[in-house]
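Reopening this ticket.

The earlier resolution said the output was attached, but the attachment link was broken on my side. Pasting everything inline this time so it's all in one place.
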Amino acid sequence: PMEKEKTVVLYPGLFVSHFVPMMQLAGALLDHGYAVSVALIDPGVKEDVAFGAVVRRVAASMPSVRFHTLRAMEDTPKLTHDARFMVRYLDLLSRYNERLHDFLCSMHARNVHAVVVDSVSNEALRVVKRLGIPGYTLFTSSAATFVAFAQLPTVLAEGGASFKELGDTPLELFGLPPMPASHLSGEVLEDPESDTYKATMALLCRIPEADGTLVNTFESLESRAVAALRDPRCIPGRALPPVYCIGPFVSSIADAEAKERHECLAWLDGQPDRSVVFLCFGSIGTGSHSEEQLREIAVGLDKSGHRFLWVVRAPASHDPGADTDLDALLPDGFMERTNARGLIVKLWAPQVEVLRHKATGAFVTHCGWNSVLEGVTAGVPMLCWPLYSEQKMNKVHMVGDMGIAAEMVGWQQGLVKAGEVEAKVRLVMESEEGRELRARAAAYKEAAATACDDGGTSRLAFAQFLADVASRQNRVCSEEAIHGSR
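Inline output:
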């Protein structure tokens, strides 16, 4: 008889940075002979044109993946990026639980071997478990961040001030270097009585409920954190589910729009090897700087004397629809003076291709985890300028354990001055310390490739994940065979 096809259902969140790695997981599953269905909350509920566009591009580029949009709710609130975003987002997810349940039932649950949900959507695992299907999460940040998130609920349960009150006091978490409490994600730095704080803590408390967690990292990049995840002392009295480090998923899926090569790559072709500093601060508008900050960056780049490729977004105060007049934003004469050695690109550049270009010598980044992995797999040393989310946590590890980055410290005062921009660019491009950062970055590039090769840690972890899914599935089927014949 024909074997029933083995299906894995993916349930991504509404963030480009979470969706794209989930689709690379889809690609890996297809390669291993699984059928993949993606259940999507209607992208229209988030006021973010970019997300819908990425979904359409990916769907077009992966014809063998089945996309299913869960029917929209009658009274779905629009999601806007503001202080209450997380509360609204988690509320929206819980409203869609029944829709997800109906979708899984319509697929005849027994053909579904596993469901993998975005880590922020982990409440949906309760629906999955109710149907007796193995349920996993995909964590799209670092293993170290996962270690911290898993421990935060118990850290405060043992009494003590709120994270907010701790200020810059170093947090001592198991398996991690000390980190200022102020570097945690914004949501847990809210008042403990606030909805945002409570909703976020509830999310973190559900981490152990998954049958396993896939993490977009590779072991040798974060050996200390990975060891902590396997240690029973990580969360005393609670076992963490198995963690599979299956990364790095680095993709130019999101960059696949342009049919012709982006103009900045042609410009890079004309520059000497490893001579260009690339500045880019993430895919969403929250990565835009104030006018004052843009001017400080410009003066610093000007004085450094180094070549640069700078992706500039208009400050949040500007009309997003209007075309930005960069001349008016940047210091007088800056564009003419740096015309020969600098290129400014508005809004967007193909980041993966830029980082892998031989002319690129350093990367000034907001430390979003996808960007960090893109820098690592390109072997480029980095300058950290964290802005939001868990980026400050990533910075700690990039500068510390990984040793692949230096920090622009001015972000802690809310303004990186021109003098620091100049000094740090020189440090990474000219100094002995910069050479050491570059050497370590090159070593991690090799290590990332090794992890993904036959017999590499990430390949083995993925095989282990599939084996565990199969054994859970067999257990479910044999129980049905025993109980189902009555």
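Reporter confirms the inline version is readable. The two ends are 25 Å apart (CA to CA). Residues 263-448 form a domain with the Rossmann fold fold (CATH 3.40.50.2000).
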